[in-house]
Amino acid sequence: MGNAESSAPDPRFASACRAFTHKELEDLKSLFVSLASQSQSNGQYISPTVFKGFFGIDGPLGDRMFDLVTQKRNDKKLTFEDLVIAKGTYEKGTKDEIEEFIYQLLDVNDDGILGRSDLEAALTSMFDNIFSQRRSEPGSSSQEDIIGIFLNALNFSKANEGCAANSISFEDFRKWCTLLPSVRKFLGSLLIASDTGRSGSQVPCLLDLENIDSNSILLRKEYAWLIGGALSHQELDEWKLLYHSAFNGLSFNTFLGNISNDEGPTVLIIKDKEGYIYGGYASQPWERHADFYGDMKSFLFQLYPKASIFRPTGANNNLQWCAVNFSSESIPNGIGFGGRANHLGLFLSANFDQGHTFACTTFGSPCLSKSSQINPEVIECWRIVRKGAQQERQDGIKGSVLDRFKEDRHMLNMVGLANSSE
User: In 3-state terms, what secondary structure has residue 408?
Assistant: First the structure.
């Protein structure tokens, strides 16, 4: 099917077929037939326009994906064999194979050199897809600024003969994916139908405090998307602002009072007087302890001038710190993450007027600001409302049959197969 012009079977096709179940292959055939019929090709191939429209990939990134999927033939014809081989590698391959495919995908200029211009073009396509309906909102960051902070997390270590600027190596790319899991998730799900809520595309709904100037809020949609890359799908529905220092004052007691009325994880964000923005995700409630506590879901992050996520390394269990009204100097009063007492990865004193940030093995994180001593200018705390949490409290286990049906359908969507025969 869709292979009338092939003179001989491609051995990669036979190999790729073995990665799928019989049902998955039948669904892929149905998908191909549906898209080929829209391409006015007598059912022989899928056109670039139909391909990019169905998968929702436009611009240089969409062109590059079509080029890779059609094995760079430049005939603008995507066959059934092409689709199976690409999905077999991109979705069913090993971690190395998948990341090698994404690494090639980012080389939008197709010159074998993955430079800054390639990444700028790819990120522009990504953000157009994710934030196209949101960039006009008040307080939205400019796309150029956001691209800049994402690229600042990259190490361009690869020298190229005859080229003044360095490019990124495959190892540079893999480290970048570790620091920016939201980018990795999105780039790893592009052959999933665009209307299925593909991995890496969801942006939490941010609920602000009433009567607060939106321009004073640190957490932009783009920052929330970045942080959300390290969280589960259930934690990307709704985030609620519980505390903002410009509205509530720089008060530790007010902070604890505001966040104690809600359950669930929190995101703490700080902007210091040097202009750096960073913070931490606290998986456990902020409660009085005389030592470190928490679990391996917590992490630190940087938002400006570079974007990075730092997850636990497993070196120790010094995840969260929350000490209140202790008189011992060995137990500093305040909140923080990682490291050790008086030398944390991130720490805010109980007066909320000073703090520190040191490189720490807990998260493998560097100093998050310009210097280790920090002077906060703005402090925010957001509650993550897990998807369905409020409804679960009201309805208990009611509705589980319909939910299971939706989950089954979502699994089909994740491989781009649902509705393929329609």
Answer: helix
For the chain, give every residue range classified as CATH 1.10.238.10.
1-193
Task: Using DSSP, state whether 293 is helix, strand or coil.
Answer: strand
Question: Do residues 303 and 278 touch, judged by C-beta distance below 8 A?
Answer: yes
Domain 1-193 has CATH 1.10.238.10: yes
Bridge partners for 50 per DSSP: none
Q: What is the pLDDT of residues 337-365, one digit of tens each?
A: 999 999 999 999 999 999 999 999 999 99
CA–CA gap between residue 335 and residue 324 (Å, rounded): 9
What is the pTM for the complete model shown? 0.86
DSSP state of 416: T
> At CA 191, angle to CA 190 and CA 193, rounded to 5?
95
Residue 335's nearest CA partner among 300, 286, 291 is 286
Report CA 82 to chain centroid distance, whole Å.
28
- Token pair of 177 as six digits: 């994916």
Best CA proximity match to 220, nearest among 39, 61, 75, 382: 382
Are 259 and 282 within 8 A, CB to CB? no
CA distance 241 to 264: 13
Question: Residue 133 CB: number of other CB atoms within 10 A?
Answer: 8
Q: CA–CA separation, 124 vs 131, rounded Å?
A: 10
Q: What crossing angle do the helices spanning 22-38 and 80-90 adopt, rounded to 10°? A: 130
Mean pLDDT confidence for 366-385: 97
64 CB neighbour count, 10 Å cutoff: 22
Residue closest to 28 by CA, chosen among 46, 40, 47? 46
